[in-house]
Amino acid sequence: MTGQRALRALNDALLRCVRLERRVDPYVRPLLDRLLRPPLQALTQWCVNVRRRDEHLRPAEEKALPGEAGIAEAITRQMARFIAREYAPGSVERAGNTKTYGVVAGEFTVLGDLPGRLRHGVFAHPATYRAWVRFAGPGPLAPPDIEDNGILSIGVKLLGVEGGTLLDDERATQDFTGISAPTFTTPNVVENLALQQHVYAGTPLLYFLDPRRPHLCDLVMQGLYARTHASPLRTRYWSCTPYLLGEGQAMQYSLVPRDAARGRAPWRPADDYLRRALTATLREGDVVFDFLVQLQTDPHRMPVENASVVWPERLSPFVPVATLRLPRQDVDASAQFALADRLSFNPWHALPAHRPLGNQNRARRAVYLQLSRLRQSMNGTPHTDPSDDVPGAGP
Hints:
Largest sheet: 9 strands, antiparallel
Strand content: 15-25%
Structural class: alpha+beta
Distance between the termini: 52 Å
Shape: globular
CATH superfamily: Catalase core domain
Radius of gyration: 20 Å
CATH architecture: Beta Barrel
CATH topology: Catalase HpII,  Chain A, domain 1
Number of helices: 9
Order of helices and strands: HHHEEEEHHHEEEHEEHH
Number of domains: 1
Number of strands: 9
């Protein structure tokens, strides 16, 4: 017990250093990103890749890890324990992507004249879909924004999608989710379980620094993209994990804001300054993201099962396939947060043509579904299928 208290104290001391850096970050980060991020990312990715062996998989081919299903169940139990300990019934937050900055109405428009290799699933034909878009923080708790704003998340739920989803709790939706870093926090579900154990113990930073099982490359990659954001609407998001695009073809995707002017977070920010920035921006005018996809062209250099690897753009550049427009709107916080409680974002709310790939995505099917049901049950906010054309269920 004494040893665990010492580890928590060390973790908290490191966390205070991170929070101090958040205050000065806006003044030095733009220059550091331009000068240092490209070479540091290249070096880090070299370190990640030099230890990997080529398993000679085919394009979009998956390879399950030993005991993968049991690991996914263990992750669910671990995160459920955390929720039960940290939250009282009626006030339960998501265990990941926790703090909601806003849920806003959007329009997702598929471009015309796409190359044949891209015309699959929702991209098969030019179309415009209504959408709900949720912007959120990393979690697993929801402190003041300045203390926990390094990596942001996005969830896009398209409505009225024909073809049926891979989860039967919704009928006509397609979810796209991402974070503001090109790699995920953990490379696979084995390490994700280790991270969740550290989270429960109150030592999440020590997951990366454990001398017996270090994850320094993942720490560096997250650190290269973790910054003091001025607004959730002004940063790029990546899927980090792959998905099918048709049959036998894998993709990753990214959402890039057309207006990426950073601005600066206030020196003395309000606890919810990111929500305020989102609300103020949409009150003034539209916000547009370009939706880009990147096709897998080398199954080894662009792996399906390892989320710590950046797919090289020199092998396959990102290509625009759609736009996500968030029209000018007044964001009613109470109504939007109530909707956020009823909505569930899951990458398996997907057409078969966009089936999630890789061990972390396979785990998410059960983990996200069970934790969503737990949260909504404890809060008394039953899941809403936006396919039901109820008032407030669409833009």
